[in-house]
Amino acid sequence: MEISDAYIQSFIPKRDELLIEMEQFAAENYIPIMQLSAIENLLQLLRIQQPKSILEVGSAIGYSAIRMAQAVPNVDIVTIERDEARIEYAKAFIGRSDVKENITLIEGDALEVDIASKYPSFDAVFIDAAKGQYQKFFDQYSPLVKQGGILYIDNMYMHGLSDLDMKDVPKRKRTMIRNLHQFAEWIIQNEQYQSTFFPVGDGLLICIKR
């Protein structure tokens, strides 16, 4: 039996005015942010983990960074974004938030910026960027995760595309979905991590570093 959307929504706490404004802005401007059901699960997992430091790959407009900083007291968040327009939106929204002192925005391509020289380790990494590059992001940033730390990876379901036969996936999406499948198979078999898929939102993968 499927759970109704209304029932799921009943468990989502009210957000402050800034977050609601950001959600509306993202919807109106077709900027992807985490679905509410997924981010509430992510935030609860972070409350349990209580990381002191989080690296986010893919800031967009700063929505997830703000929500993570609000959920975990005194956490330090480093978030990376390459899109110039989104960087400006993120700066503005983060600057208006009550957690701006907890968030550092790094401008640039996550596969090119030098994070390790200034931030050698993190308790958690949240990957929510170019889906076809997840293996590269993981290879680059998993070494920075402390033993016992966790990588949280969003959009593994890719709006249902990951569950289709490849012939039914639009041609322009096939390489991305193929890369996502290969990454999922690789991480599940990787004995250095204990990985679990959470079927919430657009699919959340949790990888605990052994």
TrEMBL record:
Gene Ontology MF terms in the entry: methyltransferase activity
Keywords for the protein's UniProt record, in alphabetical order: Magnesium, Metal-binding, Methyltransferase, S-adenosyl-L-methionine, Transferase, tRNA processing
First-tier enzyme category under EC: transferase
GO terms classed as biological process: methylation
EC number(s) stated in the UniProt entry for this protein: 2.1.1.-
Keyword Lipid metabolism annotated: no
PROSITE patterns xref list: SAM_OMT_I (PS51682)
Amino acids binding Mg(2+): 128, 154-155
Positions of S-adenosyl-L-methionine binding: 34, 64, 81, 109-110, 128
CDD domains, A to Z: AdoMet_MTases
Record's signal peptide: none
Highest taxon, organism lineage: Bacteria
Reactions catalysed: 5-hydroxyuridine(34) in tRNA + S-adenosyl-L-methionine = 5-methoxyuridine(34) in tRNA + S-adenosyl-L-homocysteine + H(+)
KW Magnesium (keyword) present: yes
Function noted in UniProt: Catalyzes the methylation of 5-hydroxyuridine (ho5U) to form 5-methoxyuridine (mo5U) at position 34 in tRNAs.
Subunit structure comment from the entry: Homodimer.
UniProt xrefs under HAMAP family: TrmR_methyltr
Family per record: Belongs to the class I-like SAM-binding methyltransferase superfamily. Cation-dependent O-methyltransferase family.
Protein name (Swiss-Prot/TrEMBL): tRNA 5-hydroxyuridine methyltransferase
Organism: Kurthia gibsonii
Species classification: Bacteria, Bacillati, Bacillota, Bacilli, Bacillales
